[in-house]
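Give me the fold.
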Amino acid sequence: MAIVNYERDGNVAIISMNRPEKLNALSKALNDGLEEAWEKFEHDDKVKVGILRGEGASFGAGADLVEFKEHPPGSSIPDPDRERYRRPWALSKPLICAAQGWSVGASSILMVSCDLVIAAESLKIWYSEMIRGLTPIAAKYIVNQIPLLFINQLVYEAEPIDAQTALRMGFVNRVVPDDKLMDAAMRSARRIATMPIHGLVLYKKFVRKAVDLPDTAYYQISLNRALSAGHQDVAIAGLEAWAERKQFSDGGGAEYPLPEEFNRTKV
């Protein structure tokens, strides 16, 4: 099997890291495989959403420290690959992470760079750089996901946290039994895949901009893009359907029914 597998289940892509004998430690080969998968995912018109997972007992053991030792900071491997851990954040379509077992250092950055995180009960997140004499890079990459005080706790104390603690901190969206992990991730993915693709893509662009822009600039960019060619007609049709309590279709075959409680209201 390839070091990274790309499969399609309907309009859901499943991207699997396949290095279980090394707990999916992020080697250069695995990072290269992920890069190929991201490109395939981006250009796959048949999918609206993806799931990132790790084969075996753990999602990922962090950066491959054997390679890290052979190529210390400033050489050709670690520096470019650090930015690769954040690639899910730069993708145009939503990506769900299904994480179990260990998620250490760089692997947890990869995990929280996804748009949603479904955690198995066995999940353990660990930032161990400090006790290894390394400089942690976690704060830069996850400060928009969880509060800084929690990041400081994880980095300074360098103790693993379990899935329920991760849920309380805001690292993950929900926790499920290990044997239900992919079921839960697929259920979320299929729900997302019923949404209009233009809305999914625009929202993710807005979220990325919101991280860096002042409120007024973000609002103007969001408004301009929402009303750009190809999107305004769909938005108007959706609003009209909402007002008339009709089922909305984006013209691509997908339909988006309103929940029954909204059908009974005047909102």
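Residues 73-80 have pLDDT under 50 and may be disordered.
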